[in-house]
C-alpha cells in the first residue's frame, strides 16, 4: 500500500472553458490524484478578482502534501481552504475590491472512503449502478427557497436570484465549507462541475451522459461541448472520475 492506502484505479478527465459569452474564465480545476484530491473552483469578482480567487484555492490544495489517513486528508483540505480564504480576503483588501471569492467543490478519496467538501453552488454527483445522486447541496438563495417550499426547481432555473450564493471562500468572516463522507465502490463514476454546466444541463441530461460507456476524458470533453452547444452563458468546468477496484483489493461492488 502507498501512503494513500490505494484500493482503486481512478481515471480522470478534466476540462474548463470560458464559454460563449464571458471574456474571462474565472474557473480553475485541480486534479491531484497523488494526493487523492480533485476540485472545481468558480471565482466571482470579475477581471483580476474571480480568476485570482479560484487560482488561490487550487494553489492551496496543491500544497496539501500526502495525508496519512482519511481524517488527516480532510483536516488538511479544510486548513488549506481556511488559508485560501485569508489570502483572498487580503487580496481584496489590498486592491480595494468589494466582492472577491470563489465557490469550491472538492472530492477527496483515501482508501475506500470518499469525502466531499464544498462551499457555494459548484457540485459533486455520484453515478452508481444506473442512478444519479447529488452528493452536495447548493449554498444559494434559491436552494434555500426550494428547501422551504416557496420555490420550485423549475422556477429556480429562471429566477433572477439563481446566482446569489450564501457561502464562498473569501467572502465573509469565515469560509464555512460543508462536508459529507461515504464509501467508494467499484464502478462508481463521479462528476464535479461549476454551475456553468448545470445552468444548461439538468439532472436528466447528466444521468444520460454519465450512463455512456465512453472513458472519463472523453466524457468531460463531451459535457463541455454540449454546454457550449446550448449557449454556455457562464464559464464551465467539469471533472469526471471513473473508479475501478484494484485486483485483490477486497472491494464490494
TrEMBL record:
PANTHER family: PROTEIN PHOSPHATASE
Species of origin: Paracoccus amoyensis
Protein name: Serine/threonine-protein phosphatase
An example molecular function term from Gene Ontology annotations: protein serine/threonine phosphatase activity
All residue ranges annotated as the PPM-type phosphatase domain in the record: 11-243
Coiled coil: none
